C-alpha cells in the first residue's frame, strides 16, 4: 500500500497508509513543570516519541516555545496496525509522522506548522528517506535545525517523559476501545445483527434541525470500525418544504442519501440506519426505502421516552418487529445515544452556521452604500462572511472603495 498523505516530491513509505487523529494529554504532566532555568535556555524545542502497544501506534508531541511548555498531544494512527507477519518499524512511523505534520501544508499557508530549531526524537532519523525529510525541513525553515537522538541531561529526561506519555495515551485509548467494543457487541446482540467481525458494523444516523422552520438542515453521521467517522459526516440543506415539516425533511434527506444505494461500495453499506424520531418518522423512512428497493429491516427509530429522560427511549422498527426498550443500563442504548446525540450536535451546529451566514449576507445587502461590487470585494478580501464580521475598522477601510466612514458603518452594523 502507499501512503495516503505524502507531500509532493517526497518519497513514500512502503506499507504505510495512515491518517492521524490527535487527543490532548494531561496538561499538568510532570514535563509541564520543568520551566526552570535549563528550560529557559532551551528556547523552542519539539520532542517526538513513537510507541506501540498491542499493535496500536502513537506519536507523542511535546512542544516548548520560548522556554514555556505548551502541553503534550498524542497522535494515533487510524489505520497502521502491527502484526506478527509485519511488525511496525517505529523509525518509519516517526519519519512518516514528521513528514505529514511538518511538511504536508504549503509553507505560505496560515496552517503551516513551524519547525523549531531543535527536534528531539526517540528513534534515529537515518537512511536515505530520513535524509530527504530532514533536508526538506531545513529548506522550509531557512535556518539551522538540530535533530537530536539519545540526548543527555535534562533533554534525556524530557524524552523519557514524552515516551511515557505516549504509552499512557495508548493504554487509555485501548481501555476506551474495549468499552466501545462491548457496546458494539451489545447492540448487535440486541438487534440480531449477524457479522463476522464487529468492526464491520456501519451505522448511519439522521437528525433534522431548525428553528421555527428557518434554515432547516438534516445531518447524517457515520459510525464505523467501532468509532465515529467525522470525515464521513454530511449535512443536507432542506428546501421546498413547508416550514417545520420534519417528515418532509426526513423524506428528502433519505431520498438524497440513498438514491443510488445499489452503487454504494460494499464496505460503505450500513447495517443499521438510525432515525431520530418515533413512529411517524420511521413510517416516512419505510416508504422511502420501499420505493428505492432497500431492505426496510435496516431502519430503527429512536423515540424519546417520557419527559425526554435519557434511558427511557424506545426503539421502533420499520419491519413490524415489536418496539423494545433497552433500559437505562443497556450498553447497546449507550452506543445508540452516543450516535444520536452526535447527529443532533452536528445538525445544530450546521443550522446555526447557516442561519448566521444568511443573516450576515442580509445585513450586508441592506447596508446603504454597499452595492454588489463592494460586497464582493469585501468577501474576496476577507475570505467570506465570517472574515468580514471579524475585521477591524482599519482592515475594512483598507479595501478598495471602502472609506473610513463606510468602514465604521459596516463595523457598527455587524456588531
Task: Explain what the structure shows.
This protein folds into three domains: 20-174, 2-Layer Sandwich (Nucleotidyltransferase, domain 5), CATH 3.30.420; 198-345, Nucleotidyltransferase, domain 5, CATH 3.30.420.340; 367-414, 5' to 3' exonuclease, C-terminal subdomain (DNA polymerase, domain 1). Strands 7, 8, 9, 10, 11, 12 and 13 form a seven-stranded mixed beta sheet that branches. It has a six-stranded mixed beta sheet with strand order 1-4-3-2-5-6, sandwiched between helices. The protein is of the alpha/beta class and 415 residues long. It starts with 19 loop residues before the first strand and ends with a helix. It has eleven helices and 13 strands.
Task: Estimate the strand proportion.
Answer: 15-25%
- Give the overall average pLDDT: 81
Cα shape: flat
CATH architecture of the largest domain: 2-Layer Sandwich
For the termini, the CA-CA separation is: 52 Å
Give the helix/strand class: alpha/beta
Any idea what the radius of gyration is?
Answer: 26 Å
Q: What's the total number of strands?
A: 13
- What is the count of structural domains? 3
Q: Characterize the biggest β-sheet.
A: 7 strands, mixed
Report the total helices. Answer: 11
Low-pLDDT regions: 1-18, 25-40
CATH structural class of the largest domain: Alpha Beta
Amino acid at each position: 500500500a502507499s501512503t495516503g498523505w505524502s507531500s509532493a516530491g517526497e518519497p513514500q513509505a512502503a506499507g504505510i497508509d495512515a491518517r492521524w487523529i490527535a487527543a490532548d494529554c494531561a496538561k499538568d504532566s510532570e514535563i509541564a513543570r520543568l520551566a526552570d532555568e535549563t528550560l529557559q535556555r532551551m528556547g523552542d524545542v519539539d520532542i517526538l516519541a513513537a510507541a506501540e502497544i498491542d499493535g496500536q501506534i502513537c506519536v507523542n508531541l511535546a512542544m516548548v516555545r520560548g522556554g514555556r511548555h505548551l502541553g503534550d498531544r498524542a497522535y494515533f494512527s487510524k489505520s497502521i496496525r502491527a502484526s506478527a507477519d509485519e511488525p511496525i518499524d517505529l523509525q518509519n512511523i516517526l519519519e512518516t509522522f514528521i513528514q505529514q505534520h511538518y511538511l504536508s501544508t504549503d509553507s505560505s499557508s496560515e496552517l503551516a506548522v513551524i519547525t523549531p530549531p531543535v527536534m528531539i526524537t526517540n528513534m534515529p532519523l537515518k537512511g536515505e528517506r530520513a535524509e530527504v525529510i530532514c533536508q526538506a525541513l531545513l529548506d522550509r525553515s531557512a535556518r539551522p535545525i538540530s535533530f537530536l537522538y539519545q540526548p543527555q541531561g535534562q533533554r534525556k529526561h524530557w524524552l523519557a517523559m514524552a515516551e511515557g506519555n505516549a504509552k499512557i495515551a495508548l493504554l487509555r485509548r485501548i481501555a476506551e476501545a474495549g468499552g466501545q467494543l462491548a457496546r458494539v457487541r451489545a447492540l448487535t446482540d440486541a438487534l440480531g445483527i449477524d457479522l463476522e467481525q464487529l468492526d464491520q458494523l456501519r451505522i448511519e444516523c439522521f437528525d433534522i434541525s431548525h428553528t421555527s422552520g428557518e434554515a432547516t438542515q438534516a445531518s447524517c453521521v457515520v459510525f464505523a470500525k467501532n468509532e465515529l467517522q467525522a470525515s464521513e459526516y454530511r449535512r443536507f440543506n432542506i428546501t421546498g418544504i413547508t416550514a417545520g415539516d420534519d417528515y418532509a425533511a426526513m423524506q428528502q434527506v433519505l431520498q438524497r442519501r440513498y438514491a443510488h444505494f445499489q452503487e454504494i461500495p460494499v464496505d460503505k453499506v450500513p447495517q443499521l440506519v438510525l432515525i431520530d424520531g418515533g413512529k411517524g418518522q420511521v413510517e416516512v423512512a419505510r416508504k422511502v426505502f420501499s420505493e428505492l428497493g432497500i431492505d426496510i429491516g435496516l431502519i430503527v427509530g429512536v423515540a424519546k421516552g417520557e419527559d425526554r429522560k435519557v434511558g427511557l427511549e424506545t426503539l421502533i422498527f420499520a419491519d413490524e418487529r415489536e418496539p423494545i426498550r433497552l433500559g437505562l443500563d443497556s450498553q447497546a442504548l449507550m452506543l445508540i445515544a452516543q450516535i444520536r446525540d452526535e447527529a443532533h450536535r452536528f445538525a445544530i451546529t450546521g443550522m446555526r452556521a447557516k442561519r448566521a451566514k444568511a443573516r450576515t449576507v442580509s445585513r450586508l445587502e441592506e447596508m446603504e452604500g454597499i452595492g454588489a461590487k463592494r460586497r464582493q470585494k469585501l468577501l474576496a478580501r476577507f475570505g467570506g462572511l465570517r472574515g468580514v464580521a471579524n475585521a477591524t475598522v482599519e482592515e475594512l477601510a483598507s479595501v478598495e472603495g471602502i472609506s473610513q466612514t463606510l468602514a465604521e458603518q459596516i463595523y457598527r452594523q455587524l456588531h
